[in-house]
Amino acid sequence: MTPDNTVSDTTGAGRAGSHDLQDVAKRNLWLHFTRMSAYGASDVPVIVRGSGVYVYDNHGKRYLDGLSGLFVSQVGHGRTEIAEAAARQASELAYFPLWSYAHPRAVELAGRLAELTPGDLNRVFFTTSGSEAVESAWKLAKQYFKLTGQPARYKVISRDIAYHGTSMGALAVTGLADIKYPFEPMTPGGVRVPNTNFYRAPGFAAGSLEDFGTWAADEIERAILREGPESVAAVYVEPVQNSGGCFPPPPGYFERVREICTRHGVLLVSDEVICAFGRLGYYFGSSRYGYQPDIITFAKGLTSGYAPLGGMAVSDALMEPFLSGQSTFLHGVTFAGHPVSAAVALANLDIFEKEDLLGNVRANEGAFRATLEKLLDLPIVGDVRGDGYFYGIELVKDKATRETFSDDESERLLRGFLSQALFDAGLICRADDRGDPVVQLAPPLICTQEHFDEMERILREVLTEAWGRI
Ligand SMILES: Cc1ncc(COP(=O)(O)O)c(C=O)c1O
Questions:
Q1: What is d(CA 387, CA 247) in angstroms, rounded to the nearest whole number?
Q2: Whose CA is nearest to atom 2 of ligand 1?
Q3: Which atom of ligand 1 is nearest to the CA of 131?
Q4: Residues near ligand 1 (Cβ within 6 A)
Q5: Taking the CB of residue 119, how many other CB atoms lie within 10 A of it?
Q6: What is the tens place of the pLDDT at every residue in 34-59?
Q7: Higher model confidence: residue 414 or residue 305?
Q8: How many Cβ atoms from other residues are within 10 Å of residue 434's Cβ?
Q9: pTM here?
Q10: CA–CA separation, 166 vs 180, rounded Å?
Q11: What CATH number belongs to 45-75+356-469?
């Protein structure tokens, strides 16, 4: 039980007053992927409101939201028209399941998404999160192959360091050993192949981007052949791999991956939990790079975070075996396609259209890149990479040799200094060392040059200080 914190104030602290919030947060709240010991002596950061590309903490301090929360807030914060759509829906029909029933907003949203997805991805299965979407795609692949006479196909191939979620199935697709180890044994079937990090390409493939892409795609085929094609159900790829710091695909890579999957009867799942809904200037990242997936998984930006919602869009061919007789996809979750979330998603997509947010990203992405590339004059900045409004900045100890930091230095640099210093300087972004140390940026799609300049200025100050501390 918590004490009764009824003190109210104007900082957005709500039932708990601003002072009590700290106490209660430290006593009762468990933050995700967070070393809670870090808050023994220091405050838990508490964000209380947002407006446009900025958010504010409980002391009234302003931060540029350079990560859209967690790759989520595409249209920015404080959009009352989305809040109103949510309120209208909650009054009309707050909840009904998609188990055997439909409700109007889920129907409308499925229809709208089917128009936006590439090719024949016309069937939408909703979830509440990205992990559920990734896991649903795997379950669908397994059941589809059982129904179509290939019951041995259950394995999934994904790329080194790729993050695909945390539930046990999604974790088996994820390529990050450190976050899997405590939960072993894993769901069987996860197979790893190289990612498209050209900055860290092995020597024999580092000569040209095209050759590197061919090699990386062919590694997928080698894995399929090694495992036995009859045992492989799906290949999971993100259009731009997030974890490791934004690896865009080399030219021709996805074309080749598509050919390989088709040749071996393996499903191509495009995990667009981050890369859909404008992050790369298109509704779907696969459209930007011109490949046709069999399944797209999505979440995050679909609602810009005004309510949780995820899902997968599936090809007509995959749906086909479920359209006759007694076949049923034996899978579902209570809150998937929640009416309020679906209404929110529709209002969010209305804003995309009204304000031409895809156009804004396409018009400004070059300027975003050019502004971030100014940082390459700093000795600590080894690489700036990404596309659209999605960038990673790799930090190195030695630019000439591309030497990275030791685990100890990384710990001191990222956890001991950078994350807090960037936050203190008013920029929310992500300092991460899931692969090599990177700072990641994925700002709301409404950002323009003034915001790019603000990000660059803060990064320059903080990275300069970080270099001085090494
Ligand atoms: C590519 C990708 N897939 C899946 C997930 C899992 O999504 P969620 O956190 O909504 O479960 C994420 C989350 O960041 C992601 O980036």
A1: 9
A2: 164
A3: 11
A4: 129-131, 134, 163-165, 238, 242, 271, 273-274, 299, 310
A5: 14
A6: 999 989 888 999 999 999 999 999 99
A7: 305
A8: 18
A9: 0.96
A10: 9
A11: 3.90.1150.10
- Please tell me the distance between residue 130's alpha carbon and the centre of ligand 1 in angstroms: 4
From ligand 1's centre to the CA of 466, what distance in Å?
30
The ligand 1 atom at the shortest distance from the C-alpha of residue 271 is: 1
pLDDT tens-digit readout, 215-246: 999 999 999 999 999 999 999 999 999 999 99
295-298 vs 310-314, strand pairing mode? antiparallel
- Which of 300, 303, 341, 440, when mutated, tests ligand 1's pocket best, judged by the most ligand atoms within 8 Å of its CB? 300
pLDDT band at residue 416, thresholds of 50, 70 and 90? confident
Q: Is the pLDDT of residue 2 over 70?
A: no
The domain limits of the chain are 45-75+356-469, 81-354
CA 166–ligand 1 middle distance (angstroms): 8
Q: Which residues have C-beta within 8 Å of that of residue 126, sequence separation ≥ 6?
A: 98, 106, 110, 309, 310, 311, 336, 337, 342
- If pLDDT is split at 50, 70 and 90, which confidence band does 285 have? very high
Domain 81-354, CATH among 2.30.30.30, 3.40.640.10, 1.10.760.10, 3.30.420.10? 3.40.640.10
**pLDDT for 82 beyond 60:** yes
Name the average pLDDT for the chain: 95
Nearest protein Cα to ligand 1, atom 7: 130
Q: Do 18 and 58 form a contact (C-beta atoms < 8 A)? A: yes
Looking from the CA of residue 134, the nearest atom of ligand 1 is 4
Using DSSP's 3-state secondary structure scheme, residue 336 falls into coil
What is the C-alpha to C-alpha distance for residues 136 and 200, in angstroms, rounded to an integer?
A: 32
Taking only the tens place, the pLDDT of each residue in 136-170 is 999 999 999 999 999 999 999 999 999 999 999 99
